[in-house]
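Can't paste images in this forum, so I'm doing it all in text. The chain is below; anyone willing to post the predicted structure tokens underneath?
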Amino acid sequence: MRRAQLIGLAVIVVASAAQWPTTAHGRYIEPLGTLGQATTPPDPLKHVFTYSIIETEAAPTNLLPSIKKTMTPILDDVGAKLYSVWVPVRMPDSAPFEGLTATQLALMAAWPDQDIQASALDATLTALDGVSRVTTNILIPIYLAESLAVPTETGFYVHREELYHPLDVHEAVRLSQEAWETWESTFGTRVTGLFRKQSDSVEVAHLLRIVWYQSFDGWLDSRDADRDPEARRRFAARRLLQLEGSGVAVATDRAVQ
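Text version of the structure:
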């Protein structure tokens, strides 16, 4: 099985008032006339996600307690909440996926601050006993199935990266969302989220789509495009927009607390 090198696998953390070291800080000032009234929660799509691959020196699941012990007070201080932990999943050797190795863990977080410094997160996690390396990328959410929560439990999650010209992203997203309307119910699957990698490139947009299937067999079943011809047509149109190098995918399970 090849080593996972997608744009970052991680424990997803959700923050509502981030005070993690960043290049800029902001605060919410309640408008006049609303004192004492409940405030509207931040728009989930205005958060920034960190997506990290954690390399460990032993079985990564053994590190979950120490990760929680270290991260919980930090998350509590910023109003954050654990979103998801991605872990290795079993699949046939012939499966067309890269996978988390036996010493990798995936960790993801959502922050309301647009100027997150990934290096601060990397340094905190790398300092933990048993962690040898952390690689983090910044993702901008385009679509979230259920706000800042993963709507599904354990299963077979496919994290797929696709490349587009920036001018084609809107059309690719439109085709995807229209296809999902029938595709999810037809095959009993669920799109968890769609993200765009933060980048200075004006020529290539990196999109990451995370999809839940009940199992590897459930993923195989979803390949039967004839069962949903409308979704098949839209997926084919989307594929024509993709740039060379698209389609790299990592399969994981999810550690449910």
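The CA atoms of residues 158 and 251 lie 5 Å apart. Residues 11-28+36-255 form a domain with the Alpha-Beta Plaits fold (CATH 3.30.70.100).
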